[in-house]
Specification:
The chain is mainly alpha-helical. Helices cover 54% and strands 4% of the residues. The protein has two domains: 5-135, no CATH class; 140-198, Arc Repressor Mutant, subunit A (Orthogonal Bundle), CATH 1.10.10. The protein has eleven helices and four strands. The strands form two sheets. The chain has a two-stranded antiparallel sheet. Strands 2-3 form a two-stranded antiparallel ribbon. A hairpin with a 2-residue loop joins β2 and β3 (17-18).
């Protein structure tokens, strides 16, 4: 099935919110989602890479590409977006941003589905419809499964605390993470870490 493509272009503003993703062409620096007003989010992103330096076996080409895309999208949401966009315009040729690029780059961020839709330049209903066509699943279910799979992997092979893993895979509340994990995996994160064999796949 063909992938849905969203053309990167400057967006029109409605009620102060820019709807389309910023273009990488010089002069296009409008931002679709909330601008990052400080470097705290960038620092958190860099800190989140520590797990891969400590566990190089986790690093794959796909993961490197995903993290690079995530960093680029974060940089394009800072108050330095104009400078960043101009730099990228000199390094890369303009291209269309695929729906899957947006989704895969933010699987483990705490962005809401509405924010993903905005980032892709679509209405929420259009985003959900195109997502279903591409993934044969709803955004909420697909993202939840991916996050839980990543959480299981980190619980098995990393020394990160359960709280750190919770935030690493995109949840922003430990209680909610534990509740969702137990509902879908059948045991708590702590129990899974002690003995992953307690989890029996259906």
């Amino acid at each position: 099935m063909p992938e849905t493509k969203v053309t990167v272009c400057p967006g029109a503003e409605r009620n102060g919110v820019t709807e389309n993703p910023p273009s990488l062409k010089p002069g296009y620096a409008r931002i679709d989602s909330k601008r990052i007003q400080n470097t705290g989010f960038i620092t958190q992103f860099v800190y989140g890479l520590n797990i891969y330096f400590e566990n190089p076996a986790l690093v794959t080409t796909d993961l490197l590409i995903l993290k690079l895309r995530e960093l680029i999208l974060l940089l394009l949401q800072t108050d330095k977006a104009s400078t960043i966009a101009g730099l990228f315009a000199q390094l890369f040729t303009p291209r269309e941003v695929k729906l899957k690029d947006i989704v895969e780059a933010h699987l483990f961020s705490d962005m809401t589905i509405a924010e993903l839709a905005m980032l892709s330049g679509q209405s929420l209903s259009s985003f959900k419809r195109d997502f279903q066509k591409n993934y044969n699943d709803s955004p909420a279910n697909y993202i939840r499964i991916k996050r839980l799979n990543e959480a299981q992997k980190l619980l098995r092979i990393s020394t990160l605390s359960i709280t750190e893993i919770c935030y690493q895979v995109g949840f922003n509340d430990l209680s909610h993470f534990s509740k969702v994990f137990k509902k879908h995996i059948g045991i708590s994160p702590a129990e899974y870490r002690i003995d992953p064999t307690l989890y029996k796949m259906n």
